[in-house]
């Protein structure tokens, strides 16, 4: 059995809280490659 230990230290020391969304995920159709522009649109939508 694999045992995982908790990371040492406080995650607040490692990461800063973001003021706004920094990541957007969405469903895409098969064989569709999203563009950077499309990703920026999705992220802007979340930031409104």
Structure description:
The chain has 48 residues and is mainly α. Helix content is 33%, strand content 0%.
**Series of H and E elements:** HH
- How is the main sheet built? none
Alpha-carbon distance between the termini? 46 Å
**How many β-strands, per DSSP?**
0
Runs in which pLDDT lies below 50 for 5 or more consecutive residues are none
What proportion strand? under 5%
Average pLDDT for all residues? 89
**Annotation field: number of helices:** 2
Q: Using only CA atoms, what is the Rg?
A: 17 Å
Return the structural class: mainly alpha
Task: Give helix % range.
Answer: 25-40%
Shape: flat
Protein traits:
single chain, 48 residues, mainly alpha
Describe, in short, the structure shown:
The protein is mostly helical and 48 residues long. It is built from two helices and no strands.
Structural topology:
Elements: H1 11-14, H2 36-47
């Amino acid at each position: 059995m694999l045992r995982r230990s908790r990371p040492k230290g406080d995650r607040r020391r490692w990461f800063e809280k973001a003021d706004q969304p920094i990541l957007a995920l969405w469903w895409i159709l098969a064989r569709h490659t999203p563009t950077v522009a499309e990703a920026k649109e999705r992220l802007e939508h979340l930031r409104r």
